[in-house]
Each structure stands twice: as structure tokens, then as C-alpha cells.
Amino acid sequence: MKSIKDLMPIVKLEERLFLASKGVLHALTSSSPSRILRELSRKNAFYFFTSVGNYTGHRAMSLEEFATIIREVEAVSLKFHLYRGDFEKWSDEVLEDHELTERIHAVKLLEPVGNALRDQLDFTVTKRLEELKGTQ
After folding, report:
1. Which residue, among 50, 79, 48, 46, has the nearest Cα to 60 in the 3D structure?
2. Are 5 and 66 in contact (CB under 8 A)?
3. Among 76, 79, 39, which residue's Cα sits nearest to residue 59?
4. pTM of the complete model
5. How wide is the angle at C-alpha 96 spanned by C-alphas 94 and 98, nearest 5°?
């Protein structure tokens, strides 16, 4: 009889295949840490809104700035972007950090709101940032 620990690699693979089938995951690996941590152009920065057309005045031109702004911007902005898939799209297509994309998707599945949403995103992004900095 197999234990749950024996089945975990299979579950992880199934999760990755599911995400890939939904277009969330483009590859099983991310770009290099230096590429993910790079300073972005204004064109590729993440601009925070509270709703369509309501810019908060915050923009992140790097993953590090993104982590800082998550702690500062209104929770309504985080909710707006998380549930539209904006964070996942930016992480995947601009930062090219597929690992972070998966983790943000996992946060979304938990359906947090308010401070719980901020705390979950802060923890997720900060942890990934620390991992990337540790490999340089």
C-alpha cells in the first residue's frame, strides 16, 4: 500500500499538467534569476489599479519593487489584479518566472480577501524573491 508521501510526486505532476492545459504554465522551468530580477522598462512595469481606469499611482519596475508595493497598495487593488489573472500574466510573460506564476495561482485558489490576501501575496512573493537572490 502506498502512503501519501509516495503519491506526492504524482500529485505535483498532475498539478503541473493541469496548469499547462489551462495556459497558466508555459514551461516547467523559469528563466535565470538575474533575468527574473532585472530592472524593467516602464512599458513592462506592473501598474496597479483599483478598477479599470483607476490607477493607484504605484508601479513596479522589478520583482523587488513589486514585493514592496504589495505591502503598501490598497487591498482592493490586490484583489482586482489577482482575480483578473494580472499578476500571473505579468509574472509569466514579463518576468518569465513560471515558478512564481504557479505560486500566485495557488494563492488565487485559496480565495483570500483583505489583509489575508495581502499577507498571502506578500509571503509568496517575498519567499520567491529571497530564493532568487540566494542563487545569485
Report:
1. 46
2. no
3. 39
4. 0.77
5. 130
Kindly tell me if the per-residue pLDDT of 71 is higher than 70: yes
Q: What are the angstrom distances between the C-alpha of 9 and each of 13, 28, 34, 124?
A: 6, 14, 29, 21
Residues in the chain, how many? 136
Q: How far is CA 113 from the centre of its chain?
A: 16
Q: Are 26 and 100 contacting, i.e. CB atoms less than 8 angstroms apart?
A: no
Q: Do residues 101 and 88 lie in contact, with contact meaning Cβ atoms separated by under 8 Å?
A: yes
Interval 15-68: pLDDT, tens: 655 555 555 444 445 589 999 999 999 999 999 999 999 999 999 999 999 999
For residue 17, what pLDDT is reported?
53
Q: Give the separation between CA 57 and CA 50, rounded to whole angstroms.
A: 10
- Written as one string, the DSSP assignment of 63-123 is HHHHHHHHHHS-HHHHHHHHHHTHHHHIIIIII--HHHHHHHHHHHHH---HHHHHHHHHH
Where in the chain are the domains?
30-134
Q: Which grid cell is 100?
A: 512564481
